[in-house]
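Technical appendix A lists one of the benchmark inputs used to test multi-chain prediction within the project. The record comprises two sequence entries:
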Amino acid sequence: MDIAILGGTGDIGEGLALRLAYHTNHEVLIGSRDAEKAEAKAAEYEAELDSRGMELTIDGGANADVATLADVVIVAVPPYYVTDTIEAVADDLDAGDILVTPATGMDRDDDGFHYAPPPAGSVTEHAASAVPDGVELVGAFHNLAAGRLANLDADLGVDTFVVGDDGDAKGIVTDIAEGIDGLRALDAGGLGNAAEVESLTPLLINVAANNDGLHDLGLELK
Amino acid sequence: MDIAILGGTGDIGEGLALRLAYHTNHEVLIGSRDAEKAEAKAAEYEAELDSRGMELTIDGGANADVATLADVVIVAVPPYYVTDTIEAVADDLDAGDILVTPATGMDRDDDGFHYAPPPAGSVTEHAASAVPDGVELVGAFHNLAAGRLANLDADLGVDTFVVGDDGDAKGIVTDIAEGIDGLRALDAGGLGNAAEVESLTPLLINVAANNDGLHDLGLELK
């Protein structure tokens, strides 16, 4: 399957790109608003994989140019850019394509980080407002520590939660996620359940900040 | 230490009472609005422990009567009764006593359960409004599956999150929690971080509802 990662030059985009390229047979495409930056990062990821004995070609390009080639498009951009990014590539998506959003909204005060969803109830539901007809939206990969994901020497052994209103699209994203070694994808229900998934991210950051020896946290349900 | 569990006849109260009595040396007191019900449940817990070879006396009584005897008072009542319950025992607490709240607020729609905090931002912060001067409030035990807790044959191997604005009180509650075999207590910061802890409970319920073979879920950060 062809998977484009828009914002694939950022922290979480890098982690997902490296893990998907390293652990799965999917074709990974790196997108950015700046095509040259995407190409340069794709070359970096190729070099990282080459150092581990994998000779792969990872293409980079402008968001719209990689989105048009992909079956699954992961929108790995900050929460405030999710809808703009989807709208910018909407004409390049085909019916049956799947958009995946890992974004969550947070703010910070003296106590720590707090979940700060948009009026739609969650960033995932806010993203849904920009999704073109015929394309399905799935929320996934919200609670993964970017640094741990990007370090291919780090074991994961953690869960990610998948939300969406279309069972087939959720199934495809679940299979993609579980292609990554040590990642279990759990069905957290419909898009309406995204807030409970997204709000885990500030908790993980707060716990890492308050407990010695814990960092880059994930979680396993058991 | 003397630990009173108000609402100790309910599901989460039963689990905490049995685990604390079974795994720790603390004195556990069962409270209820109905003293006779508390006495009957305390006798049930004694019988359960006796069947495991532990001869303990667990006293039960009216909430105020057990609160006055205790150093730590766990308010194991539904979220809408937390402040009323604290106010009803406020005169029976001494300076230096610690109140512990495990409650979280949820509602439900077609997608599943959702976090529904009161205007204070979280049930824990709402509880704080009723706490008398000189008494510290700590949030803990929010995300534990009651049935699993009450089944002393079930392994835990899960985390609970502790929030509070007084470090000493948090330390005492952390020590109490970690006295339970298989329970790790993680510092999630101040009371202002309670919402991110409380909102885990609906997620755990939603994931259990949507994935075969998962039930009575807890979680481990890793």
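The mean pLDDT of chain A is 97. Chain A touches chain B through 38 residues (CB under 8 Å). Comparable benchmark entries are summarised in Table A2.
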